[in-house]
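Hi, here's the filled form for the chain we discussed.

Project: internal
Contact: R.S.
Residues: 100
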Amino acid sequence: MKKTILALVVFAGCAGAFAGQVGLPTEHLALPAVQAGAEYKVCIWDETAGGWMGSFATYDHAGSVDFQVPAWGQWYWIGLWDVANEKYVFGKWIGHFITD
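And the returned structure, exactly as it came back:
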């Protein structure tokens, strides 16, 4: 039993040492307050690909959006599009880079 517990502690310690380098980050981005009932779209621009990522998602007025970064070392622009006024009401560049 002691060997099993010791093995689990060692495994957890090793896993924790590498946890910062595994997988891709999820960005939780706060969005500004916008007119209730109006339609807005969340748009994501992939700078490296030079195009929009997927289709524009309808904003649910939750105050934030979660965005899974598709790749390290690239820039993404997240915008909030006001459908009725045909203009962006918010925009933010996001990039995640691995450093030594």
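Let me know if anything looks off before we file it.
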